[in-house]
Structures are given as structure tokens and as C-alpha cells.
Amino acid sequence: MPEVSKGLLWRARVMLRQRDGVLTVVGLVGLAVVIVVGTVTMMQPRTALRVGERREPDKAWQAVAPGRIEPLSGEIKVTSVVVGRVAEVLVKPNAQVFAGEPLIRLQDDELQARLVAADAQVAMRERARDDQKVTGKASDRRRAEDALNDAETDLFNARAALDASAVARRAGGGSDADLGPARAALARAQEQLKTRTTALRAMEEASPLPSEADALLKSARAERLVARAAAEKMTIRAPIAGTVLQVSVRVGETAMPSAAQPLLVIGDLSKLRVRAELDDSDVGEIKVGQPVVVRAAAFPGREFAGKVTAIAPIVGAASTAPRGSRGPTDVEIVEVLIDLADRGPLVSGIKVDAYFRRAEAAKP
Known about the structure:
The chain has six helices and 15 strands.
């Protein structure tokens, strides 16, 4: 073999050995990095549970589930039942409201004009009817219809007076003492309406058919009730007594029934509860009345006692699951409600972990 060929062959062998050495060193360095990263990860402390994450419970716990604090009433999302432009927002977050208190007013100029026209129509029909004299049961029926009409008007006016007192108090021009008489008047008007409605129904069964003038008046009064009901929908009221948690609308915006975001969120914060998402494989071990310990990452070292008050009768996807079609790997959970004995510093919306005590661990 020529000397040149031997030299080239020797150089090729040296280069191969050098390459193998470099690859070996790189492989060893990579393995060392993996070992270090794995060790550091294992040494990291565990954070709060995520939905679908299983933590092996120790001997004291039957199961562990992530959850969120919410008002005892749940979060009541308030929306509008009609489309309208927001004219007034009467409350702010953290405001205490009573059931039926006006929260938002929509623009209602057109409906107020309809009310004026309806009042005029009723007045005209009443004069035409009164020109026709009747006696006996027909007269008794007229008096019962007039009494019911008066009760409906009294109720409408009593609600308007209570609204005015509530708005004045919210604006600083009134007090809680002013609300008492207004709320009492509304309750009396509601009871009076029930009584007179019952009385008229009993009278109608034994009375002759109404005259044309009576029928026209009844129709006009019904049209006025429809106008009042339409105007009433322009005032958005508190469905329960509680605290305004969130206000998501401003004056000038359009309120719609199909809006994705509610106008307001209200909740009863007098007591709090936990809505936990329990893995469906643990649901058979959890019972209503079972004691629970609640922990929050925001308050390390503190525990809050509670007990299971309700277990959902259906299995569903976790609240953090993506929308759309569900796959075989989606997390299946059962919602469990836990009433807290003492809310402590907890606030609505905070994330917590619920530890369900074993029966033997719950015994003193």
C-alpha cells in the first residue's frame, strides 16, 4: 500500500476516535443535567391541588379535593329580561341590598308615555260606564272590580314609593328608618290585592255577563296593567338580600338578556361555603354530614372546619375543562358543597383544598 494511502487511513481512524470521545462527554453531561433537574423538582414543595390532580391522602383523610369559596346563596348573576340602554346604576360593589331593591334603571321614556295614554283611556272608559246605571248583582260586581282596580293602583304606587326611599337612602338623602314604613305599605298593598282578587272571583261566578261599557273598561284596565308590567321590567331589582359582589355595567351601555356577562353579581355573605370538585372515583367514600378541613394557600398554617351538606347527583367535567367536545382523558368530577362553621378571614372566590376526614379520624 502506498505511503499516502496509509497516512490518510491513519488520520481517519484518529478522527473517528476523537468524535466518539466528544459524543461520550456530551452524553455524560446531559445525563448529569437530567439528574440534577429531577432532584430539584422532587425537592420542591407541593402547591394547592389543581382540578383533576390526585394527592394520595394520608391515614387521616378519606379524600382531598380542590374547591373555591362562595357565598351560602351561591353567586347570583343578575341580568336584564329586556333590551334597553342603562340610564342609572344605583349600587356599587360591597353595597348591602334588600330583596326587591332597585339596582339598575333602563331608559323608559316610551313606556312612561304609554302609561300616561293608558291612564287616560281608563278614565274615559270609567266615565262612559258610570253613565249606565245598574242594580243588584251587576252593581255588586262593579264595586268589586273597582276595589280590585284600586288595589292594583295602590300596589303600583307603594312599590314606586319604596323605590324612591331606597334610592334616596343610597344617595345619602334618606335613612333606614324611612324604609320601614314604605316596606310595610308595600306588604299591606300586596295582601289587599290578594283579598280583593279572591272576592271578585267569587262575585263573578254569581253575576250576570258584563255590559258593553263594563267590558270596554275592563279591557282598558288590562291594557294599563300590561303597560305597568312593561315599565316595571325597566327596573332591575335585587333577587335576594345580600352583598353586591361585582358590577359589570356602566351608564349608557346596552343591557341584553343574551349578554355573556351578567350586569351584577350578588351573594349572601352572612355565611360561606366551599364548592369542591371531588374526583368521581372518591364519591362513594364521601357522605353528607362528613367533617371536612379546609386549607387555603393564602392563609398558610390555618385550618377551617366544615361539613358536607350536599353531593351532586351527577358526574360532570371539571370547571376548568375546555369547552367543546369531551375526550376520553377529560377529568370527571362530582361537585360537593361544604358549609363552613367559621368563615374566618376567607373571602368569596378564593381557592382552597378540602380534606375529607375518615370516619375513625373524626371520632374524639
